[in-house]
């Protein structure tokens, strides 16, 4: 049957043959179109989802090589997603080998996830936008989750090509109105399906009771109070309806400058010190009277929170002494290009430039600077017993990032899944981070699109990678959370402020009989079956020990330190790119010069910070206490699971962290079984490990990028070095060398 085959055509580098190949060429599909009985593949629509346009006889290319092999099917565009409907037997249907999302399929792209669209005209790749005079023969879609899709339209009817290309460009790139988001269509049509998972105990911080609970949990209620002065957003639309301020602060001061200049409480330390944040007062030109009034107001605020020797406050101006949003935007724009690979040839051509491109993007250095700033603030709170006041223009970008990182490092509750979700609700959602603008969901301004939240998740991943037993959740949890930024059935990441969300809710209630019940992303049962959700929970998480202090003394979990950059102090041979053995002195010198500033970055640390940092790392780690990351250059790594998961060449079967965790689980289960026999007890307490995902069994079959990588696809290695290698040595000599694979789980 034609629909079940892999269609071959074109030329290019030699690649391994698939397990089943149809010997019908694309040209034959076109000429014999009337004789072909196309197998109908059902398009699954969500409640409220509508089909907009479609095109038949489309080839979805396999990304492995340049042979232009692909799957024959139909390309459709709805008001929610772009979807390719093909019958591909190469996709595994076995539940044990797939991590399925119930909302987004393998060949689905939500409209908000589309980053760039390219067309190929006479083998030339061009960016597509606006109205087209000529339509491409190939369509390439780059996604914000770093997937790359190639569609051949050469054998599609001209009218269908115009319709599908124009529709995709319009619905993914044209500016939108907030009310036109699919979020509202889905909520209106799925009223009966919008119930929250009763097992989800995430604190939403949308009531005064939630804030009072958090104050009690952190023992901050003595010095701080929860206020409701902004109910109905009477004071400020940027702030949540409820928040926490210092107890001595008069409530009439809160409304003087529409919430600006008010020290807002974030978190209290065990020693009584607190982390605060404040948005800057608006600057008024040529108004000396107002400026003097603002100065007097700020002096009064400062005296309220700074009362030496009892209360000492250190201010940290993130707008002037830290990163800029432009720095983050520029760095990520360069960084993501390393992973938007069109084919195998391009991958190998860029391999030689990998480390220089990685370092020149500055993304890893930005992560290091964020972690360093969080450690500096932690040192003030923990070692110097000082309150810290974070300052920023609107206190809704870098304040959210730094304050959240500090709490992850200092508060073990924030390292549980419920605690982490509550932290995101408190600091990001209620903190007024402009997700709508920063993710550019409405396509109204590319300048406003800055991946601040993704940067936060990447920083948290560094901690998870360095201290796995300290976290209740896995890197897979962080990865699917980053993917959820672009799924418009959840309201969590589709508003700029709580006021905006509540205002839309009130308007919908005026026009409909029932208020919209918007879904929260924290109900993971909407996206994943219980079996798949097990991969979000860390089975190696160290529960809080019940041993006394004497028994706990000296205990430390040991884990292997691994380097992400090739220039190290070790005696192992340096590596070229990802995979090839390095023998060329020119490359050694080049890499040494380019990454030297990352390796020596720790020299920038000042004395107090250095003493605090070194002292902590010299002691056994308490996974339920303070947790600091290593921030030296080689310790800041690429989040391989998120950034490399769609690149077949980056898969290492039977290797990486997935294989390690699988073996550890097998050992732990064996220990539990032996312990049960010793205790002569029924199978009870070992149930947790028994529920560990079956997907992690059989480590030899797992990819290093599990659970996202397709296990059946073996990456094709070049027979001869590609053009990028020819200038670096004798081709025949290079061809004889064996590839040396580096475990990408340690990148």
Automatic annotation (TrEMBL):
Recorded name of the encoding gene: MTMR12
Main location: cytoplasm
Residue ranges of domain Myotubularin phosphatase in the record: 205-643
One GO cellular component term noted in the UniProt record for this chain: sarcoplasmic reticulum
Record key words, sorted: Cytoplasm, Sarcoplasmic reticulum
Annotated protein name in UniProt: Myotubularin-related protein 12
InterPro entries listed in its UniProt record: MTMR12-like_C, MTMR12_PTP, Myotubularin, Myotubularin-like_Pase_dom, PH-like_dom_sf, Prot-tyrosine_phosphatase-like
Species this protein is from: Acinonyx jubatus (Cheetah)
Coiled coil: none
Alphabetized Gene3D superfamilies for the sequence: Pleckstrin-homology domain (PH domain)/Phosphotyrosine-binding domain (PTB)
SUPFAM superfamilies in alphabetical order: (Phosphotyrosine protein) phosphatases II, PH domain-like
Function: Acts as an adapter for the myotubularin-related phosphatases. Regulates phosphatase MTM1 protein stability and possibly its intracellular location. By stabilizing MTM1 protein levels, required for skeletal muscle maintenance but not for myogenesis.
Protein's UniProt keywords contain Signal: no
Cell compartment(s), UniProt: Cytoplasm, Myofibril, Sarcomere; Sarcoplasmic reticulum
């Amino acid at each position: 049957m034609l629909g079940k085959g892999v269609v071959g055509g074109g030329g290019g580098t030699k690649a391994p043959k698939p397990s089943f190949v149809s010997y019908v060429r694309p040209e034959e599909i076109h000429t014999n179109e009337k004789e072909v009985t196309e197998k109908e593949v059902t398009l699954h629509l969500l409640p409220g989802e509508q089909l907009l346009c479609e095109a038949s006889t489309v080839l979805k290319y396999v990304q492995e090589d340049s042979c232009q092999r692909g799957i024959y099917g139909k390309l459709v565009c709805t008001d929610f997603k772009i979807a390719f409907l093909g019958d591909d037997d190469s996709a595994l249907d076995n539940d044990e080998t797939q991590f399925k999302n119930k909302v987004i399929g393998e060949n689905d792209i939500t409209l908000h996830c589309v980053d760039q669209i390219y067309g190929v005209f006479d083998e030339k790749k061009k960016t597509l936008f606006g109205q087209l005079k000529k339509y491409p023969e190939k369509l390439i879609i780059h996604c914000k989750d770093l997937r790359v899709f190639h569609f051949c339209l050469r054998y599609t009817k001209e009218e269908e090509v115009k319709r599908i290309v124009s529709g995709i460009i319009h619905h993914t790139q044209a500016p939108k109105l907030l009310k036109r988001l699919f979020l509202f269509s889905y909520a209106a049509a799925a009223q009966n399906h919008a119930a929250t998972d009763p097992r989800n105990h995430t604190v939403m911080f949308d009531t005064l009771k939630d804030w009072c609970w958090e104050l009690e949990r952190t023992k901050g209620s003595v010095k701080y109070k929860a206020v409701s002065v902004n109910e109905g957003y009477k004071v400020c639309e940027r702030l949540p309806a409820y928040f926490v301020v210092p107890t001595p602060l008069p409530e009439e001061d809160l409304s003087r400058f529409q919430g600006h200049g008010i020290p807002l409480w974030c978190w209290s330390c065990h020693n009584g010190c607190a982390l605060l944040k404040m948005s800057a007062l608006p600057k008024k030109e040529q108004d000396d009277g107002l400026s003097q009034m603002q100065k007097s107001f700020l002096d009064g605020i400062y005296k309220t929170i700074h009362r030496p020797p009892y209360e000492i406050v250190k201010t940290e101006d993130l707008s002037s002494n830290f990163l800029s949003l432009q720095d983050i935007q520029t760095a990520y724009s360069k960084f993501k290009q390393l992973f938007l690979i069109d084919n195998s040839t391009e991958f190998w051509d860029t391999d030689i430039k990998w480390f220089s491109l990685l370092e020149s993007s500055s993304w890893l250095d930005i992560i290091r600077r964020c972690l360093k700033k969080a450690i500096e603030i932690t040192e003030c709170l923990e070692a110097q017993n000082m309150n810290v006041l974070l300052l920023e223009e609107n206190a809704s970008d870098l304040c959210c990032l730094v304050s959240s990182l500090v709490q992850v490092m200092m508060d073990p509750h924030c390292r549980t899944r419920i605690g982490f979700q509550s932290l995101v609700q408190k600091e990001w959602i209620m903190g007024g981070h402009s997700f709508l603008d920063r993710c550019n969901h409405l396509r109204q301004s590319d300048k406003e699109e800055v991946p601040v939240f993704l940067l936060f998740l990447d920083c948290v991943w560094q901690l998870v990678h360095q201290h796995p037993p300290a976290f209740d959740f896995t890197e897979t949890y962080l990865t699917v959370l980053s993917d959820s930024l672009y799924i418009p059935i959840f309201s969590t990441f589709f508003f700029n402020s709580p006021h905006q969300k509540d205002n839309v809710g009130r308007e919908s209630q005026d026009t409909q009989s029932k208020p919209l019940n918007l879904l929260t992303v924290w109900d993971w049962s909407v996206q994943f079956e219980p079996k798949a959700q097990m991969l979000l929970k860390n089975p190696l998480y160290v529960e809080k020990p019940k041993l006394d202090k004497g028994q706990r003394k000296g205990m430390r979990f040991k884990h292997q330190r691994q380097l992400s950059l090739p220039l190290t102090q070790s005696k192992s041979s340096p590596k070229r790119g990802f995979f090839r053995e390095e023998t060329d002195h020119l490359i050694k010198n080049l890499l040494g010069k380019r990454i030297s500033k990352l390796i020596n970055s720790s020299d920038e640390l000042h004395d107090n910070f250095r003493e605090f940092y070194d002292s902590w790392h010299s002691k056994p780690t308490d996974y339920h206490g303070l947790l600091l990351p290593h921030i030296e250059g080689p310790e800041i790594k690429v989040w391989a699971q998120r950034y490399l998961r769609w690149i077949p060449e980056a898969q290492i079967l039977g290797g990486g962290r997935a294989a390690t965790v699988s073996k550890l689980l097998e050992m732990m289960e064996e220990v539990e079984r032996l312990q049960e026999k010793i205790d002569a007890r029924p199978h009870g307490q070992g149930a947790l490990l028994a529920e560990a995902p079956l997907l992690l069994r059989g480590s030899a079959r797992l990819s290093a990028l599990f659970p996202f990588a397709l296990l059946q696809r073996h990456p094709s290695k070049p027979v001869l070095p590609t053009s990028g290698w020819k200038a670096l040595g004798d081709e025949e000599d290079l061809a004889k060398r064996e590839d040396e694979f580096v475990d990408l789980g340690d990148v």
